Amino acid sequence: MVRTEQDLLGKRELPAAAPWGIHTLRASENFPPILGPVHPAMIRALIRVKRACARTNAELGFLDAERAAAIEAACVRLLADPPADAFPLDALQGGAGTSTHMNLNEVIANLALDHLGRRRGDYAGVDPFDHVNLHQSTNDVYPTALKIAALEAVRELGGVCAGFQGILQQREKDFAAWVIPGSTERVDAVPITLGAQFGSFAEAVARDRWRTVKCTERLRTVNLGGTAVGTGLAAPREYIFRVVEILREETGLALARGENLMDQTANTDAFVEVSGILKACACNLMKIADDLRLLSQREFIRLPAVQAGSSIMPGKVNPVLLEYAIQAGLKIQANDLLVADCASRGSLQICEFLPLLGHALLESLIILKGVIGCLTPFVGGITAQPERCRVALDHSLGLFAVWVPEVGYAQAGAWAAEYVAHPGGSVRDFLAHKLGADRVAEALTPERLTALGYVTAKKGGPS
User: Fold this and answer.
1) What is the C-alpha separation between 126 and 384, in angstroms, rounded?
2) Do residues 277 and 426 share a domain?
């Protein structure tokens, strides 16, 4: 069974039961599967925008109650249980998102016809253009939906960052007693505590968490009501002033209509800013993952064993989750370049490349949320290796630097040269011979090593 639909290019036959129409058919033929489907979060956000537009038009009397109720019922159905064949288009497409938008208009129209007991394709009942798309354009609907999808994903990302920060802070407390050699340029430096190392990880994640919260301010300003180029052409003024209020009620998000809708339609730098924040988070994640690999390699910590590491070497366990995080970070960095390039290539009144920009941005958000969610329990399972920490510290040349304030650089350097020339025990034992075991032990306590500098006696005052 087939039905025939017509657009400005002519007539086409399509399956009678298809929930989409001729515009979706042509787009599916033009854009083969490459990146994969349009992100589900984007589809959900588009549905919510369409629902808010229908409600606004009904409230203001531009859409009759029966059609409005049918459109809303279709949106509810799509949000709850969308047909498997409803959204067949690939994420990589030309046209600034028009193909996806028209796909949605057609699906909503046909499901609304289902609700009214009419056959699919009978657009006299509910038309994709005249009813579902009333007072709208791809150029205000699509970027508004992308901001909604990004806002919700950013909010979720902030939650997982908080959990990751918390577990790193717990490791900071758990490992506060273990002193290890610090490292600069992958060579032993002055001593630190293992806990302090995890504390520095936690601070980096805290900044990521703060940045994700702040970037939502850029996403809350939308251009819905601006129609094609931000002038609101073909939309009533009362609709323009009301539709964002209805959308705010629909989503529960603190959305605001942009003061300059032409600016909000033409410029997509807000997405670039958010993507840059995600890249910063990815960079911190990669640094933490790489540092954990180094700490494990030096046997200061033991990583949880999550799977066998080799098909030929029995007993080998690799840091696969850390490698996973590093690769995820590389992908997010690549996506950031895509977002920036897409935004910069928009021309005059719109950004034609929003489909790829949106896919990359949402992909980065989902990747970050997933990877941090995996790393949090993994880091919670890390244990310290106290004996290895002690041995490494006792043999570290960085211990000589501890005594520079007391004996001077030249004397500490002479001791280091003497030790290197005649190694025969640990650096700790060497220093104990020079200074006394008690003085060395006191100088190397975790409290002394993590204090901010040392206290001096004021001139003319008590020592």
Assistant:
1) 66
2) no
